[in-house]
């Protein structure tokens, strides 16, 4: 596992580098990932708009900032993601802004399709669902916790719909985006903060 993590970290990107990579690929009419088609390209273009909006509007509440500043264990937050993923577009900017409230967290991203060995270690119900946040001890690379691919409320929304209708369709995908917009990243911040607070040492 440690060697897998080391390999991933060697190719990891900062958030600005991740955004730039997506932008450069889009100028070539490409998306991130090993599969290329018009649908993924369209989603990637849409997600750039979403991330740009979130970067301008995300606000981390003072109480969450203060709690994050109590973290006293250096960590790497390594996120498996792809530019075409609608959930990632809503979640990654929030995680980035949250990480910037403390000097104890280094925030890095890797592409799922380029890191299958790592993705295989963090499947969700057997699937390669993203984004997936892996929190590592900065010194030892011990996995401290993982989170994702969605906050609990968003996951419940999708699970309930699938249980009732037997599939995930365009209607519920639109409803999911509405959920993220209404929540303003709060549930993401609260859940990841709770996991991080559990690591604070006396």
Commentary on this structure:
The chain is built from 9 helices and 4 strands; from the N terminus they run ααααβαβαββααα. The protein is of the alpha+beta class and 202 residues long. A 4-stranded mixed sheet has the order 2-1-3-4, with helices on one face. Helices cover 53% and strands 12% of the residues. The longest helix has 20 residues, at 38-57. It starts with a helix and ends in a 5-residue tail after the last helix. The mean pLDDT is 96.
Which secondary structure elements does this structure contain, and how are they paired or packed?
Layout (H helix, E strand, L loop, with lengths): L1 H9 L4 H13 L10 H20 L4 H7 L6 E7 L4 H14 L5 E7 L4 H4 L12 E6 L5 E5 L4 H14 L4 H14 L2 H12 L5
Parallel strand pairs: 1-2
Antiparallel strand pairs: 1-3, 3-4
Helix pairs in contact: 2-3, 3-5, 7-8
Low-confidence stretches: none
Number of helices: 9
Q: Distance between the terminal alpha carbons, to the nearest Å?
A: 29 Å
| Biggest beta sheet attributes | 4 strands, mixed
Order of helices and strands: HHHHEHEHEEHHH
Query: Numbering strands along the chain, what is their spatial order in the largest sheet?
Result: 2-1-3-4
Give me the secondary-structure category: alpha+beta
Helix fraction, binned, reads 40-55%
| Morphology | globular
User: What integer is the average pLDDT?
Assistant: 96
Total beta strands:
4
- C-alpha Rg (nearest Å): 17 Å
Residues in β-strands, percent: 5-15%
């Amino acid at each position: 596992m440690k060697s897998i993590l080391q390999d991933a970290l060697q190719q990891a990107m900062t958030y600005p580098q991740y955004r730039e990579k997506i932008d450069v690929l889009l100028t070539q009419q490409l998306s991130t990932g090993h599969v290329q088609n018009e649908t993924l390209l369209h989603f990637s273009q849409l997600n750039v708009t979403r991330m740009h909006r979130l970067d301008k509007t995300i606000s981390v509440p003072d109480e969450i900032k203060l709690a994050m500043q109590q973290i006293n264990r250096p960590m790497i937050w390594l996120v498996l993601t792809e530019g075409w993923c609608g959930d990632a577009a809503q979640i990654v900017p929030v995680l980035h802004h949250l990480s910037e409230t403390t000097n104890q967290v280094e925030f890095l991203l890797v592409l799922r399709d380029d890191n299958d060995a790592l993705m295989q270690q963090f499947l969700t119900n057997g699937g390669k669902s993203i984004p997936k946040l892996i929190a590592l001890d900065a010194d030892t690379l011990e996995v401290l916790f993982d989170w994702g691919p969605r906050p609990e409320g968003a996951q419940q929304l999708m699970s309930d719909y699938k249980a009732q209708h037997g599939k995930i369709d365009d209607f519920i995908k639109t409803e999911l985006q509405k959920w993220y917009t209404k929540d303003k990243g709060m549930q993401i911040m609260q859940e990841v903060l709770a996991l991080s607070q559990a690591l604070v040492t006396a």
